[in-house]
Write a structure and sequence with these properties.
187 residues; Arp2/3 complex 21 kDa subunit ARPC3; 2 strands
Amino acid sequence: MKKHLKTMQNSRVLCMTQIALFTAVMAILSQAALPLPSNVPLTLQTFAVTLCAFLGGIRKGLPACLLYLALGAVGVPVFSGFRGGMGVLLGFTGGFLWGFIPLVCCCAVGAALQNKAALICCTVLGLLLCHSFGILQYAYVSGAGLMQSFLLVSVPYLLKDVISAAVGFRAAMTVQHALQNAGLHKE
């Protein structure tokens, strides 16, 4: 019984450590940003979010994303440009940040289904939801129409985000393979 409790504790500590690591990956890669006139910077956030979703699944990827958003909400400068605070979440780019939640969920579900077509469909759905959140909030905050917002803050980023998600998946598979070869990952 004592050995079982120790194993459970080690498992929880490992899970919490992985969530913290995924959160840190999101925060660090968010700083690789190129500002654009639309006030929506070109970042590696989509890559980071999908990488963590594909690696951690719903059990670790979603808590990491929520922790990332919570840290940013309380002012920790984890968002692009070393920004933090509720003003970012409620500002021009905030919808994309909120959209990371369905993006993580969709990517994690797609990966768990272990079917290439389902993975692609779920990932595309997640990207569409993320962009929808971004477009809606940008339109509301800026006062621009939905079509103008779509053309300004979504269209220029769609291809980059699809590529980011594909590279995120490939990177996750590479990491999982390396961990399995090292005997550190058993799934």
